[in-house]
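Before the break, one more example. Copy the sequence into your notebook; we will annotate it together after we see the structure.
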Amino acid sequence: ATDCVASVGGGIAVAAVAFAAVAREGAETAIFFWAAAHATGQELAALTGLLLGLATAVVIGWMVLRSTRRVDMHRLFKVTGIALVFIAAGVLSYGIAEWQEVGLLPGHDAVVLDLTAWLPEGSIASILAAGLLNLGAVTTALQVTAYAAYAVVVLYLILRPRSAASRPGHRQSPWDRTPRRQGPRRPTEAVGDVSSLLLSAK
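Here is what the structure looks like once it is written out:
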């Protein structure tokens, strides 16, 4: 019964987190859409793009739902988790660049990667690189160090081998939890042990 309650509670927690994430993204999308539509003055074009994006998301979601029975979800989540690690490292690097620009962190002039020739300011390539990969035209040594350190540590924590007892789906049997005693037992003790095992197994 305890395991059943725990599983139900875990499902409710996952559903609550998913609902909060979707609600946050929806509110953020609505705010950005409203700002972009009023800033450009092309409400019809912005609305058309929004509807096309929603239709594309529905089609992709339907395709993913249909293919989940044939896809190894464990491998899929591992690959997407690795991708999210690099995206998060890019967000960290972008935040460091912002702090360096306002003088809160040193090393603004220690540039190790300059892509201004390929990513000119205001171009579509620079916007896509910043939006998808958090990659700026100029990267400092502190950004590279933080990016590499974060990626290496988190990837190690995700990809390190784990024992069977520490895996999420592992359940220890009641016989493994029962301490062993040395020496002869009385019949009443043996009956009590069997009863406790049967009750814990239910």
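Residues 62 and 139 are 39 Å apart (CA to CA). The radius of gyration is 27 Å. Try to locate both features in your own notes.
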